[in-house]
Design brief:
Bound molecules: guanine
Helix content: 40-55%
CATH superfamily of the largest domain: NAD(P)-binding Rossmann-like Domain
Strand content: 15-25%
CATH class of the largest domain: Alpha Beta
Number of helices: 10
CATH topology of the largest domain: Rossmann fold
Number of strands: 11
Structural class: alpha/beta
Distance between the termini: 44 Å
């Protein structure tokens, strides 16, 4: 059994990007500048955005955090987005999701300039990805593809079962795994909350990618031997023994499933750190595109 170490792989990636930034600086070029917009005080979102900004600092990117109160109106948010679109200093930016309920998420994502959409959530970028002309691939699926690539996990002709059909993870993941290439060339089943007999499908899977958000949902008796398991779940579970009052749980019963797996990602330290590294990679790409 091999653990797909996202922490180590993301550090390798960040070091590679930092080298490129250093070379850019030496040539007197502008370094990539990522902005993040955070609306409200969701604890998990604050943590994620904080990690993204710190990662920028570590590798030599410029970063800007725009933190807005929970009561921000849709119009005010759209105004910030318009300013980011028109600010030549900003190469790429993200609007952290979820947004407060009074704001129409789709309207906001449509307002992001596709050339600065380093999350890859705009339909233009999603469509280009789906039609084999990728520009910005959403960071979590991109990170999973990179992990599979760097660990030489065989995906061609394999049956990949994706659990969860979100726009951010499950849907793009199903597209990428079915596309031509390495990794890719999988036969994909995209499952979701209405899927019947999920267990029958997971038992047939060579590769399982779970993005469900139900702690320890995937049990050992739901998988076959030599499976590859990618766990995208990160749920905060109350835990009094921890100083912060919670622990982070994945979608997979790691202790038991890992006994049957060939490859498996841990939580934490698997997909999470890869997401941040790929966002940085997309921002580097955005900078290069703006130079063209
Ligand atoms: N919320 C959960 N994951 C993500 C992500 O990758 N990007 C943004 N913007 N928000 C998220």
């Amino acid at each position: 059994m091999t653990i797909l170490d996202g922490k180590k792989t993301s550090n390798d990636l960040k070091n590679e990007i930092a080298e490129e930034v250093k070379a850019m600086k030496e040539r007197g070029e502008k370094v990539p500048h990522l902005a993040a917009v955070l609306v409200g005080n969701d604890g998990a979102s604050l943590t994620y955005v904080g990690s993204k900004v710190r990662a920028c600092e570590r590798i030599g990117f410029e970063s800007t955090l725009i933190q807005l109160p929970e009561e921000t109106t849709e119009e005010e948010l759209l105004d910030h987005i318009n300013k980011l679109n028109n600010n030549p200093e900003i190469d790429g930016y993200i609007v952290q999701l979820p947004l407060p309920k009074h704001i129409d998420e789709q309207k906001v994502l449509l307002a992001v300039d596709p050339d600065k959409d380093v999350d890859g959530f705009h339909p233009t970028n999603f469509g280009k990805m789906a039609q084999d002309m990728p520009v910005f691939i959403p960071a979590t699926p991109f990170g999973i593809m990179e992990l599979l690539k760097r660990y030489n996990v065989e995906t061609s002709g394999k049956h990949t079962v994706v659990i969860g059909r979100s726009h951010i993870v499950g849907r793009p993941m199903s597209i990428l795994m079915s596309q031509k290439g390495t990794p890719g060339d999988s036969t994909v089943t995209l499952t979701h909350s209405r899927t019947k007999n999920l267990e029958e499908l997971t038992k047939q899977a060579d590769i399982i990618i779970t993005a469900l958000g139900v702690p320890e949902f995937l049990k050992a008796d739901m998988v076959k031997d030599n499976v590859t398991v990618i766990d995208v779940g990160i749920t905060r579970v109350p835990d009094e023994t921890k100083e912060r009052g919670y622990r982070i749980a994945g979608d997979v019963d790691f202790a038991e499933v890992s006994k049957k797996a060939d490859f498996i990602t841990p939580v934490p330290g698997g997909v999470g750190p890869m997401t941040i590294a790929m966002l940085l990679k997309n921002t580097l790409l955005a900078r290069a595109r703006h130079n063209e």
